[in-house]
Amino acid sequence: MIGRQDSAVFSLLSGTASRTLVDPDSGWELSADAVLQRVDALAAQIVATGVEPADGVVLVLGHGPGAVLAFLAVLRCNAFAIPLNPQLHAREIEPLLASKKPALVVVGTDVGVEAAKAAAAIDVRVVTLADSLEPRLEEIGRGYVDLLPDPDAEAVALLLHTSGTTGRPKAVPLRQRNLTAAARRIARGYDLGIDDVSYCLMPLFHVHGLVASTLAALAGGGTLVVPRRVRPGAVWEHARDHGVTWFSAVPTILAKLPPRAGVGQLRFARSCSSALAPSLWSALEDRLGVAVVEAYGMTEASHQMTTNPLPPGERRPGTVGTAAGADVNVIDAQWRALPVDTPGEVAVRGPGVVDGYLDNEDANVASFRDGWFRTGDLGRLSSDGYLSLEGRLKELINRGGEKIAPREIDEALLAHPAVLEAVAFGRADPKWGEVVEAVVVLSAPVTSAVLRQHCAERLAAFKVPRTVHIVGEIPKGATGKVQRRLLAETLIR
Question: Kind and range of the H or E element at 58?
Answer without folding.
Answer: strand 56-60
